[in-house]
Design a protein that fits this description.
The complex is a heterodimer. By secondary structure, chain A is mostly helical. Chain A has 2 domains: 91 residues, no CATH class; 204 residues, MetI-like fold. Helices cover 80% and strands 0% of the residues of chain A. In chain B, helix 3 packs across helix 4. The radius of gyration of chain B is 18 Å and the shape is globular. Classes of the chains: A mainly alpha, B alpha/beta. At the A-B interface, helix 8 and helix 9 of A face strand 6 and helix 2 of B. Chain B: Keywords: ATP-binding, Cell membrane, Membrane, Nucleotide-binding, Transport. Chain B: GO terms for molecular function: ATP binding. Chain B: This is ABC transporter ATP-binding protein.
Chain lengths: 306, 253
Amino acid sequence: MKSLRHLILPTILTGFAILLTILLPSVEDGVENGSIIGLFVSIYVLFIFISFIFYKHPIYKQVTSDIISIIFVLLILWELSTNRFEILTSFIYPTPGEVMQQFKKDAPDLVLHLLASIRLLASGFLLAVCLAIPLGIISAWFGRLDRIMRPIASVLAPIPPIVLIPYAIAILPSFRASSIFVIFIGAFWPIFVAALNGVAGIDRRYIDSARTLGLNNWTLFRKIIFPAALPSIFTGLTIGMILSFILLTAAEMIGANAGIGYYVKLATDFGNYTRVVAGILFIGLIVTIVMTILTQLERYLLRWRK
Amino acid sequence: MSTIVYENVGVTYESNGHQAIKNLNLTINSGEIISFIGPSGCGKSTALNVAAGLIEPSLGAFKVDDEIITKPGTDRGVVFQNYSLFPWMSNLENVRFALAQKADLPKKALIERAKELLDKVGIKGKSQHVYPSKVSGGMQQRVAIARMFALDSPIFLMDEPFAAVDEITRKHLQQLLLDLWEKEKSRKTIVLVTHNIEEAIYLSDRVIVLHEGEAILAKEITFKRPRNRQSLEADTEYLTIRNQLLEAIEGKV
């Protein structure tokens, strides 16, 4: 029974939420209680599923339970303040049920927008990864280059790449090229600096040890320098990825005709706030998924750490 | 043949101007085991790093078989004080990687050979396949020794190789080193850095006491090999040598 204790609070909250939905009269006529109950139930099922993954780690189980409970409390407050008591104006504050319905209706569209966004994001981000890691490692390896690149990086890196977007759109032939360029710039510097620091910070012992094994330069780079710098490189990748998302959506809101940022912008222009909220939540979900994949990749590749 | 010569070697660290070694003159014959001994900061690790080719002497020259050495090479296998295994490779992979640098063998044969070497130092079964961070410091040091054996260099350079391991393991590893050394027809030249007097006497043909970067005493150890720990410790000559070294280390010469 002790192993099921973490289920108690979320279960009570789910039951409470469903009960409220059924018992309290709703303000909006158009929205069925079914979709909001469906939302509660699917979050609850998701929670059971996640806590099953963490069945061996009592702390993670507890954390998931706590977070899910907070989500439920927020959802209940949201539902009560909009759909049940109308404390918040229905025009700019959509109800959870409306947002859910909008999601369902727009799902095929959202997938298309997502694909357009991912293409831009992947192109810009991967280009940055492919250039920043080797350049960072090479710069760190040659003392002279290191001393040149550090001041250059410290001047250029802090320029918020968002200010480049309008100009990039003006000078580059297509929106696609300009947004890839801006994402590339945004992701490049954190990854470059991380690779530079990663190599500069390699424990002298590993280099000495490698030198006594008589490695050639290529093996030294591939088997020693790169893996030794990888923990630092991953912190750069994480920052680069977050910046890429910010720049992607910003660029899409300024000049795109597709993409998740464009979806939110268009809905805002038309005053469709249900769609705006659905879009924001959708972007949040996508960012979470992408960052989780990155973290899992990091955990796998750096499994040798203590 | 691997005769090592320190010829008026002096090392001054550029960063702080500290003179780690002053005018070291020493010839180590091929097949000889010598120990550098002394308190911390006496320059014994620096002397070994010069031999490894990791530090270039600021004065004089370091030679192996009349050739001046300024770079590391696979003719000298090194065990560092702090193991220095590559943490992103499993224990087995660390040894296999070293083997692969020296021997042009198919991967399977390399793995077999690496396993044998690890078995020899007492790293068996599952511990071969885990990452160094998952085993104790003593076990990591054994893997580092197996890695040095893998290079099969004519010269072994060992910086406090047994300092981090427990008494029983230390004796086992010392024996393993001596067995390997005694069995080979072309004996390896071994340079050892230690702060353990008993270890130095038991293993070495000569013990060099360093004090503030200078060799203040070079003591021949002439006990017959194979040596026996118990009878050695009961020997009056052993006690005389031990006290002499101890006095030298404490600077009473």
